[in-house]
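sorry for the late reply, my laptop died twice this morning and i had to redo everyting from scratch. anyway the thing you sent over, i finally got around to it. pasting the sequence first so we're on the same page, its 187 residues, then the predicted structure underneath. double check i copied it right bc i was rushing
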Amino acid sequence: MYNKNNNSRPVASHKAKIGGSARKEYRYRNSGFKSDGDAAFNASKDSSARTDNRNRSRKQNPLYVVIRRFKNVFAAYDEQQQNTQNKRHAINIAVGMSRDYYPDRFRFWQDLRDEANILLDSKRFCAACENWGLKPQAVAEHLVVEGKATLNSVLKNGLESYGEKARMFHEPLYLDTRGLYGKPANE
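ok and here's the structure:
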């Protein structure tokens, strides 16, 4: 069959079941273009393969998947209700929604504290927390929950870049009630 607009270029029949790259090859080989067709066709196949690799989704850090879910849950609270206790509750809901990433809550808290240790390694961050009369561990946990962009901004520019909102982070998010980190449970 011939295309009505351009009679010189054959097109696959509507009855023929040609799919994907076979259709491209049929059209290319029957277009009347005279050159090294195989090399040009193979090059186009290689470029489409590269495109497929770029379009694949990247594997996400499970901690930040849970944090994104936490933000959606926590945003439902009124501004007056957004305190540390409700933040803990929203985190527990988000971890419960993410059983495929964290089968138990303790693993999430371990990952959160590992991420908070990135901030705690900064002497400038710890000194700023001490100057403001805050516990560095508690502030680091809150900043990790705020998101990766906030965490990187504080690492790069210091705690002062976050502003006065950091003064609200005097309570830790994780309460070690079972004494799992080597501290007495009542501390």
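The CA atoms of residues 97 and 151 lie 24 Å apart.
thats about all i looked at so far, will dig more tmrw
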